[in-house]
Input
Amino acid sequence: MLNWQSSPLTGIGFLGMVIGGVLILGLILGIVTYLIYFERKIIGWMQLRIGPNRVGPFGLMQSIADVLKLLIKEDIVPENADRSLFLLAPIIAFVPSFMVLALIPFTATHVFTSNTQVGLLLYLALSSITILGIVLGGWASNNKYSLLGGMRSAAQMVSYEIPLGMSVIGVVLLTGSLNLNTIVVAQSRHIWYIIPQIVGFIIFMIAGLAELNRTPFDLPEAESELVAGYFTEYSGFRFAFFMLTEYVYVFALCALATTLFLGGWSGPFLPSWIWFAIKTSACIFFIFWVRATMPRIRGDQLMGFAWKVLIPVALANLIVTAGVALL
Output
């Protein structure tokens, strides 16, 4: 705001912001499209299956074909659904997932990204809005499976938001800043925070999987129990919005983990964006690996693990980190 007071936003500046946003959106859509492809190929490889191999060379066009199929399918609104909320819910879920990407420093030069002093706090605040879209979608569908999925997701995300937030406070204590770029620079000068904050990193990844409703924490959309959970009644491009939200958050969460614990864009010899891509890809591969190997846990195990294990361990890690920082 202080910068805008000294140099007000001009038409050219606004146009640049719009162009930057469109470019980032296009880039993210491409990344998400092939995240789905690589997830299917990786899981197929781990489970001795082939995976997509028909549409295009090596099946590379399969995800694009799936997206086109969803876009041309009929958009059905259930007769007894709350129409306005039903139509609005996928947008409420997706928009925050795209907004948080503006806070991640992908490179040292901050191309198309923000360098705000409270970037980490903004990320946590924006990402928590998505739960509203999920709950509204489940409730507005007027379907018992959707409602159960929405309620499960709300309980799960509220529970795991606490250890997720606590796991990153240790990084803030070590750096003394909520600026994500400052956190990366501090690691480039000393060591990656995954070493002194290995407990925080483990908690972050576990809580992040639960936040994403990913295996083994995919109870809100458990196919064997709830058909598809909160988006059971959705079809066509609105169904695609929910799927897009999930995979954008997979990328965003891994990008945040890279920024906080793996040194972000810092590294020798290679350009900064390549280092960032390598580290983020490693985190994404881990998430896919977990889905290929872990079974879904029960609901009571899910909630008990958050409140009885993750939160006490996160508190202990926070106390130890605060003591070390004080000394």
User: Anything to note?
Assistant: The CA atoms of residues 304 and 310 lie 9 Å apart. The mean pLDDT is 85. The chain has 13 helices and no strands. Residues 1-72 form one domain.
